[in-house]
Amino acid sequence: MLNLKKSKLGNELLNLAKRIFPLNRSLTGDGNRQTLQILKEYISNLKIYEVESGTTAFDWTVPDEWKVEEAYILTPDGDKICDYSCNNLSLVGYSVPFEGSLTLEDLNDHLYSNEEMSEAIPYVTSYYDKSWGFCISRNDRTKLKNGVYKVVIKTKLFKGSMTYGEVLIKGESDKEIFMSTYICHPSMANNEVSGPSVLTYILKWLQERDVKPKYSIRAIFVPETIGSIYYLSKNLSKLKEKVISGLNFTCVGDNRTYSILHSKYGNTTTDRLAAHVIKQVSPTHKIYDWSDRGSDERQYCAPNVDLPFISLMRSKHTEYPEYHTSLDTIGGVVTADGLLGGFNVNQKLIEAIENHCYPVATITCEPMMSKRDLYPSVTEGKRRPPSVRLTMSFLSWCDGKNSLVEIAEKLNIPVWDLYVIAENMRQKKLIKLEKIKSL
Prior knowledge:
The protein is an alpha/beta fold.
């Protein structure tokens, strides 16, 4: 696994997350470009694209580019609060320029706080409505005195571009495993930087393996919603033709739980493989269905798209208290072990997708295993060794009616315990592994 011990890999993931955490990301802007340039250090074939403001994508339009020079509030006592340079969540995303003096009563119409977490600065955006505002913790808000406050918001909205990244790794087949993550949230750890960090290392693992991927791998790093919608608008027919499995990378960094968000109908092979993998990794995982959607699976499973997309996560978006606040931090929420767990569960799913097949026995009745050095030539009336029993049990289900993962379920073992056995049986010409055209 990347020639790294697991503990080291977790620290590598955490270090990448720390690098991109503080960047000022949004739907557009230099923060996204800086993020992708950092990821390109890890994925050399990452291609970076710019999409002009005003470009249409189905029912949507790529917005103007947004740039922040400075933003803050001066209290009647001259103290600077809600300073964007200190915490980039302090300014409502896509705030328009404004400079002026307001009473506290008028200012309150432009302030946002989290009523449930008194110390948290909430994350608030106004992408498509020309307004402005600041985010402030409830504790700090209660300290505000009556008087006149000076507001300074120096931002620019201009015809620029939206930036996204794409990676393609050619496999033995031109059918594709399609992976997606988003790069539009500033300074939030599990909800934002965990996805790009884990996906980056998944791509590194796929590129550095000794074997070529069985399926081609396509991955994109996009602003949420508008980025995925734009990408679908330009590539939908190709994706519908080639994509056999889709994985959405989000909220894969904390160490509290594991969870799965199924596709719209929850009945694809990807759903079944993911359910098996997460059950083996964490029997106490949480299960979510389409009613719990909230990330870009909304687009990939939308009407007239209907790609087989799922998410294997740690604590799901909206389901942990620090979600969309300044308390979603590295160390406080996201840990090395958490990121490593997010990496491992998605790695195992990709391997399950690559190994998905229907084993079919090539010999009628039980084959003579001893002449193939697969069974002891002398027996002493004792039970067969566990490895032999497992092999024979595996062979008994190789009738073409059960996939590899279905056999693993019948034997109550992880599917990865069958990979070597199945390949060994194939090399001995005791089974053939029938692939299917679509997952």
